[in-house]
Amino acid sequence: MERRPRSFYILAMFFALFVLFLYGPILTIGILSFQGPQGGLTFPMNGFSLHWFQDLFQQQAVGDIWGAFRRSFALGLMVMVTTVIVSVMAGLAFRKRFFGSGFVFYAAITSLVIPSILISLGVGLIFNQFGLRIHWATSGFGSQLTWTLPFGLLIMFAVFNRFDKSYEEAARDQGATAWQTLRFVVLPIIAPSLIGVALFGFTLSYDEFARTLLTAGSYNTLPLEIFGMTTNVTTPVIYALGTLTTLFSFCIIGVFLLAVWIMGKRRAQKGSDAGKAL
Q1: Phi, then psi, of 256 in degrees rounded to 5
Q2: How many other C-beta atoms lie within 10 A of the C-beta of residue 120?
Q3: How does pLDDT run across 102-136, given as a tens digit for each residue?
Q4: How far is CA 267 from CA 113, 151, 188, 189, 261, in A?
Q5: Rounded to an integer, what is the distance from CA 184 to the centroid of its chain?
Q6: CB-based burial of residue 273 (10 Å sphere; 0-12 exposed, 13-18 middle, 19+ buried)?
Q7: Which of 64, 78, 133, 211 is the most exposed place for a label (fewest CB within 10 A)?
Q8: How big is the CA angle at 60 (ends 55 and 61), to the nearest 5 degrees?
Q9: Which domains are delineated in the chain?
């Protein structure tokens, strides 16, 4: 049996350390969230229980956790839908060169390199100057789009750069209109990529802190609420909250992956049915 080179074990150890560095804090918070009623914020653990998870659902003076969760969830859905729609429209528009397309492209992705806190400050100042109310559903929504839209645009540009135009030509040869071609040919083909854009939009919005800090107004989103809790909560209840929000994020990712899998199965079934028909 051939022995593996020493470099393999070095790289494996480096990868293991990287995974530990990446997921170690999450595992630590998850473990500490199961402290007993007398447990603290550090090791060693003082008992084992679900006390702090139950405490999250009690009426307590630790902030508006569930209100913040509802706001973050609603805002995430708003950002997700807008990101998908605008990204698809922009991807279709950029399939052909037009005057100023280069400027529009770089202007759209510039916000990725600008510090997030400056974006938040700028959006807040603009709303103040125009006498508009600063609120998570208006100014917060706008500031988060400066973060999610560039990612959506880049994904859709890559998708349409690889898109085979012969499918559209075949649809038009069959008498399909431009709208029918888009609805029944283009969108079904790029649907998995749209799910990816939607996942990016929702997750980036759901945990965004800096761009929401000065634009959320009087009502905190969940990241802002958790940050506020770190200054006045001295029990593992904050770890329990972190564990639940992490599990929720994984559930969201699982739902999107399941949707992609179901779409792939349906597409394979349709292809099989079409082959049998021929």
Answers
A1: -65, -40
A2: 24
A3: 888 888 888 888 899 999 999 999 999 998 999 99
A4: 39, 27, 9, 9, 10
A5: 27
A6: exposed
A7: 133
A8: 130
A9: 65-232 (1.10.3720.10)
